[in-house]
Design brief:
By secondary structure, the chain is of the alpha/beta class. The protein has two helices and eight strands; from the N terminus they run βαββββαβββ. The relative contact order is 0.21.
């Protein structure tokens, strides 16, 4: 159902490098770019994608309270691997990988701009 999610950044080169390296682990690549301030990563154009951009209105990007991007993984081992990769790239831990209720596993982190993300799996 999700087509894409866009995250704002105040340091576009840094954010682009972080997501390029992190999402490559999932087989994603840059599928669209507009100038020096907007990049979209995905595996194909018909699957959910992640975008990073400097805000169009020219105002500073801010983190939305209660906003989170969840990226689906196959299993807990993949969650652990990707969570560790994010932390190795400078992300901060928001909740170590593990069970979060019956049949739900997650590993939470904040990217370099403070956006909250979660690698998760069900089952």
């Amino acid at each position: 159902m999700i087509g894409y999610v866009t995250l704002g950044t105040n340091d576009f080169p840094r954010a682009a490098k972080f997501y390029h390296t992190l999402l490559a682990e999932l087989g994603a690549k840059r599928v669209m770019e507009f100038g020096p301030t907007f990049v979209v990563w995905g595996t194909t154009m018909d699957k959910p994608m992640l975008c990073v951009t400097k805000p169009h209105d020219g105002k500073p990007a801010t983190v939305g309270n209660g906003v989170m991007v969840a990226l689906q993984m196959k299993n807990l081992d993949e969650i652990k691997k990707m969570h560790a990769k994010a932390l190795s790239l400078g992300a901060t831990d928001e909740g170590a990988p593990g069970p979060r209720g019956e049949g739900f596993f997650g590993g939470y982190f904040r990217d370099l701009d403070g956006n909250k993300l979660n690698f998760f799996s069900m089952g």
